[in-house]
Amino acid sequence: MVWVSAVAFGVAWWLGWYLLARDARKAVLRRAAAGLIAYAVAVVADQLATGDAWFGGIRIVLVCLPAVAWSGVFVLLLTERWAGHADRLWRLGLVPVSAMLAMPAAAGFLPAGYAFGTVALLALMAGMLAVLGQQWDWAEDGRRPVAGLLTVGALMFGLSAALILLGLTVLPRTAMLSAIAVDLVLLGVGIAVLDAFEEGQALRADMVRSLLISTAAAAVFGGQAAVAIVLAGERTALVALLFGAIAAAIAMQVLNGPLQASIDRFAFAPPLQQARGELRTAAEELPRKRIGTGLAELGEAEFARLTRRALSHYADLGKLVSSPLIDLPAIDSRLEGRDTPPGPLDRATELKALLTESIAHLKPRTGADFGTSEEWRHYNSVYFYYVVGIRPYSVRTKRTDLDPVSRLALSWFADQVPERTLHNWQNAAARIIAAHLRAGLDSMAS
């Protein structure tokens, strides 16, 4: 069964790192990745374990840990009205309780292990029911089928984990554990689809490409250990080498971009680091770009959502490469007359300039550089946050290069504007900018 376990491990390990590599700043992707990677580690623990005490030690924790992580994913998928409160309950309630139960369980105290598994599975089922109950809210924007996919995956995973937890031998233990990979893949793919939808990106080509390269790398490096196992038998050292080779090959492929960026920090000066980073990000984002989006056919809400996402990537040309808005006719007009055909980064640069002009139109014509009245809120919320780059609610971001106006704006945001209010202003500003861009689109079409 080592070969079945190796496939299950490889798929879960790849998908976990793939989700994390899409954008590690997003909590929903981090939690989904944690669930997949924890499951992959559980598969390895099962293969390397000695003796028959399956429910001893760390392994029972690893089997149920994905349920805790995925309950946190479902919490973040709730509507804005409930997500904040539910997430605080998850972080400050479920996670500490799970940690307190997991520590004695990992030490071999089985009652704590069964309690941990029960709490984790109940939390997963509660999250699944919450997402199932709100799938009607997703009907208008095409996410409702994804809610069904996530629900089916969670239900199958919950049932499989419960069977293992109860020690029911419907199938051999290793086979049951490997079968969970199918359930978690459904969940992981569902989250990837949702993330691509929110970013306005295509998913299939990028995911298939990553999977094929990861499979080839795992086959080349893991295949050598597989040959040794065939010749010498399933020795523990060789099995560990097989899983280690697969894990290293897949991680090196999926995390190639972040690894190169880390090395660049030590090898190159900051200007060269930035240039290489933009090119690398553009190369990674280009396969995610939708082909033939049909901007003129998009509804107002969808166009505003794409505009909001483009604004969030204002400072990152590489990310703007995958925005459908780089196909705006206004950008084609700006690029006319060039001696060489424009590339993706050229279009992203023009999109950034177009967004800058649209943001400038929001500024009140009072002659002042900054104001706090109601007429300034839309301009302030996008100009200072995206163009200037201030982050008033982040304790990790400290800017010492701000001009007096920007420092004044930073102080005002931090003292007078709640984070949720800023978020609402930005959404409203994105709708205004989207309307401005659509007006140009319609005028060129006529």
Question: What do you see in this structure?
Answer:
By secondary structure, this protein is an all-alpha fold. It folds into two domains: 253 residues, no CATH class; 149 residues, no CATH class. Helices cover 74% and strands 0% of the residues. It is built from 18 helices and no strands. α10 runs antiparallel to α11. The longest helix is centred in the middle third of the chain and has 29 residues.
Sheet having the most strands: none
Distance between the termini: 64 Å
Order of helices and strands: HHHHHHHHHHHHHHHHHH
Beta-strand residue fraction = under 5%
Q: What is the helix tally?
A: 18
Computed Rg: 25 Å
The poorly predicted ranges are: none
- Give the fraction of residues assigned to helices: over 70%
- The total of beta strands comes to 0
The total domain count is 2
- The shape, in one word, is globular
The computed structural class is mainly alpha
Overall pLDDT level? 83
List keywords for this structure.
18 helices; single chain; mainly alpha; 446 residues
How do the helices and strands line up, and which of them pair or pack?
Elements: H1 2-22, H2 27-48, H3 59-76, H4 80-106, H5 110-133, H6 144-166, H7 173-199, H8 204-232, H9 236-254, H10 256-267, H11 270-285, H12 300-312, H13 317-320, H14 329-335, H15 344-360, H16 377-388, H17 404-416, H18 419-445
Helix pairs in contact: 1-2, 1-7, 1-8, 1-9, 2-3, 2-7, 3-4, 3-5, 3-6, 4-5, 5-6, 6-7, 8-9, 10-11, 12-18, 14-15, 16-18
